[in-house]
Write a structure and sequence with these properties.
Layout: H1 12-35, H2 40-73
Helix pairs in contact: 1-2
Amino acid sequence: MRAQRIWKVNGSGKIGQLQSRMDDLNKRLNELESQHPESWKIEELKSSALNLSREIDDIRCAEATAALSELLRK
């Protein structure tokens, strides 16, 4: 028997946008690290990437909590 998702994911569009920004940041980081390994921009981009990953995690956790709450109510 296959598992089925029984909740609706509301933040998937937002996560997709954030993931796209994260991919762009990672690409830029790779370029900078290969060209200028000691550039101050690298640290700035890493900080931005960490902030994006936290935002993605927050959305996913909120969705999981909401889904679990819905299941427990039933």
